[in-house]
Design a protein that fits this description.
The protein is of the alpha+beta class. Helices cover 29% and strands 40% of the residues. The protein has helices at 15-25, 32-39, 84-98, 113-121; strands at 5-9, 44-51, 54-64, 67-75, 103-109, 125-134, 139-147. Strands 1-2-3-4-5-7-6 form a seven-stranded mixed β-sheet, sandwiched between helices. β2 (44-51) and β3 form a beta hairpin.
Length: 148
């Protein structure tokens, strides 16, 4: 991992940077208001990856009782393949174990082989598929889950 990376809990001053990450990574990016609502959500766990003062990526999940559901994980293209997504995922798993969660689950485009490989390295398994889960372009999603 890039040695200058720090993982911080989401703060209001991070939101503009997260919106830029969303625009660079997703065809239907989250809005500023969507991130602002997560700041006051008791069951939301959102963390940013910073390289120096620049936001390189983020990850967020929601805890519902003892279940964890990943909302998003994203890293700017110029910071990929540096271990940042792994650091964000490891941070989320540590938090999830401390809550404690029974599992952490997510959806991933079936064509996103890099993300699938990352999740499999952490022990996530494919448990199902959601038809036409994504749009722009329309695509199915794998449901991947890691039991903690």
């Amino acid at each position: 991992m890039n040695d200058s990376v720090t993982i911080e809990k989401l703060k209001a001053e991070h939101i503009d940077g997260l919106v830029e990450v969303e625009k660079a990574c997703f065809s239907k990016p989250w809005s500023t208001a969507a991130f602002q609502s997560e700041l006051n959500h008791d069951n939301a766990y959102f963390y940013t990856a910073l390289v120096g003062d620049e936001i390189a990526g983020y990850m967020g999940f929601h805890a519902v009782l003892d279940e964890g559901y990943v909302a998003n994980i994203a890293v700017l293209p110029e910071y990929r393949r540096q271990g940042i997504a792994s650091a964000l995922l490891e941070n989320a798993l540590n938090i999830g174990k401390g809550i404690p969660l029974s599992f952490l689950s997510l959806e991933v485009r079936i064509s996103n082989s890099a993300a699938i490989a990352l999740y499999e390295r952490f022990g996530f398994k494919i448990f199902g598929e959601r038809k036409n889960f994504y749009s722009s372009p329309r695509e199915n999603a794998y449901i991947m889950t890691l039991y903690l």
